[in-house]
Amino acid sequence: MAWSDAHVLDQSGRTALVTGASGGIGLETARVLADRGAHVLLACRSMERGRAAAARIGGSTEVVHLDLTSLDSVREAAEGVRGRYERLDLLVNNAGVMFPSYRRTEDGFEAHFGVNHLGHFALTGLLLDLMTALPGSRIVTVASLAHRAGLGALDEDAARSSTGRRSLTAYGRSKLANLLFAQELHRRLATAGAPTASLAAHPGLSPTGLWHGDPPWFLRPVAAAGLRWLAHPADRAALPSLRAATDPHVPGGAHLGPSKLFESRGAPTAARSSRASRDMAAQDRLWKLSEGLTGVRYAFPSVPAPELSGVVCPVTDARG
Ligand SMILES: NC(=O)c1ccc[n+]([C@@H]2O[C@H](COP(=O)([O-])OP(=O)(O)OC[C@H]3O[C@@H](n4cnc5c(N)ncnc54)[C@H](OP(=O)(O)O)[C@@H]3O)[C@@H](O)[C@H]2O)c1
Prior knowledge:
Mean pLDDT: 93
CATH architecture: 3-Layer(aba) Sandwich
CATH class: Alpha Beta
Largest sheet: 8 strands, mixed
Structural class: alpha/beta
Bound molecules: NADP nicotinamide-adenine-dinucleotide phosphate
CATH topology: Rossmann fold
Strand content: 5-15%
Number of helices: 10
CATH superfamily: NAD(P)-binding Rossmann-like Domain
Low-confidence stretches: 305-320
């Protein structure tokens, strides 16, 4: 039977934080987690939209202000969470932008790379020790099929570029960074012997607010046709994230996505990752670049478990 939200186990007693929960896939992810009994922190750049989302979701929620264009905001959000919570079971790095109206973030980073990758890199590092003592804790980073368009070097010049606003390559690079980060985090957690798992998920294609950006003219008809023929609604597009966050049979290091029509729609199962995203040297380079750019250093637990080092077990479930 294809995996659906009916498979999400009881989450009572668990605390989850979902970034970009004010709409689209993040809202659907938060809705199901809250419905299954988790206390869900909706991390949103607009408190008003966050509160409206909380009202739609019901269950036990709290809206946290988080603007990923600003590392100060990321630090404030993390401090606020740390002040109120002793544990975080699930972190879903979901928020994202594509072809936004601004070129750079407040800290001078290329908009896609700053919001989609660096903001989440910093947030995860600042919350990590709320998670690393908790068996079953998970960090899910939401990537995209577009990671394959992430060509060119992922270096400081690209990170600070002012020319990526309407560039599919720049969006693709930020999504490639999401995959490289999720894998490197998985390896570092496993090496440290932490029970926390890092996974990646991509939603396929879904007609959400992400598509309301300002794409180059030649992408408009392609996007319209893709959304018309290949997409699925946000509640279905949220299933890879939900499965990565909650299915105990899916191991750390996995990458999930939809099963049908070139992974654009369908039930969540193992997804393909580009060769570039599996490059361990690139994963390590991105980690060091991200530490340097954000100033966030991760505090991994100090008990090493060498036998776990480098474990990557793809999901082998039948495609639904
Ligand atoms: N939809 C697709 O076809 C598709 C395909 C591949 C991957 N994805 C990925 O799926 C994830 C969710 O996107 P979506 O499709 O649900 O798009 P969406 O409807 O536009 O939702 C994006 C969410 O991110 C939030 N966000 C944007 N900028 C932010 C910032 N600076 N700080 C904090 N939050 C911010 C948005 O908040 P506001 O409400 O304030 O705008 C919104 O809640 C993204 O990572 C995206 O790259 C989507």
